[in-house]
Amino acid sequence: MGYKLVTYDAGKGARAGIIAGDRLVDAADASGNAAYATTLGIFTDWAAADKTLAALAADAGTKGVAIDWKAVRAPVQPRAIYCAGANYGDHVREMNAAQGRGPEPDPHTLGLKPWHFIKSAHSVVGPGAAVKIPPASKKLDWEVELAAVIGLTAKDVKEADALKYVAGYTVSNDLSARDFGWRPPVPTTSPFYSDWLAHKSFDGSCPLGPWIVPAGDVGDPQNLGIRLWVNGTIKQDSNTSEMIYTLAEQIAQLSLRITLHPGDVILTGTPAGVGAGRNEFLKAGDSLELWCENVGTLKHTMA
Question: What is the DSSP letter of 78?
Fold first, then answer.
C-alpha cells in the first residue's frame, strides 16, 4: 500500500505521520525512530525512511487512527524554497499577450538556463489556511505549482541523475502581489526597479500541501495535469509538459550554484490562467482549490 507523508497537530505540537487509506500513523512512534517526529528528520534519512514508512503503511489498518483533517498542517517547513520564474510556455505566451509583446524564442535556443527566486520559509501555510491579503495590495494573484521536495543532498548534479534527488511532490500556490513587484518612482530601466520580496514573499504567500506523495508513486513529473479553481470556477487548466525547463534541468542548474538539502522545496512554475492575464485578482472571502494529478488537492481561502 502506498502512503502520503503529512504533518499534523497531535496535541503536543506538530508531528510527522503517514496516511494510508483512511488511517493516520505517527511516524516516530510506529517506527521507534525519534528523528522521524518531523518530516525534515525523515528527509534527512530518506533512503532508509521511505522503505520504513512503506512498511508501516502496510500495517496502517491496525496501527493507525482515524484522520482528523482539521489537524493536518503544511507537510514540511522547509529551510529553503526555490521558485522557477516564467517556466510554462502557455503562461509566457499569456503574459506577453497581456502586455502587448510578441512571442519569444525558446530560451534554450538562446543558451539561457533556468532561473529562480526565493520565498521566505516563513511564508509557508498549510491546507485550510485563511491567507491574509497584504495591506494595500489590489492585485493579488494565484499560481498553482507542482512542488518537489528534495530527499538527498545535491551538489553539481547531472541532469540525467537529478530526479533521483527528489523525495516526493506536493501542491503549492505561489501567491503573488503583482502591484508590489516594483519600487515607484524608481524607473523601469533601473537595475533596482524590482521588489521580489514584497511581490512574492509576504506572510502566507506559499500555501503548501496537503501532503507529500513519494516520487515513485507520482511518476513522470513532466506529464501531470495541473489545475486551479477560484470559488468553483476553473482558472488554470494545463499540464506539466508545458514547462520550459524540466524539473531535472532545474535541479541540475540550482545545484551548480548552491547545495540543495533534504527538505528543500522547489516550486516548478505556473501555467496559463493567472489573474494578471485577465486583469482579475483575489479578494477577501475567495476560496481556492489547487490540484495536481497523482499528487492531490490543496484548498485554502483568502482573508
Answer: -
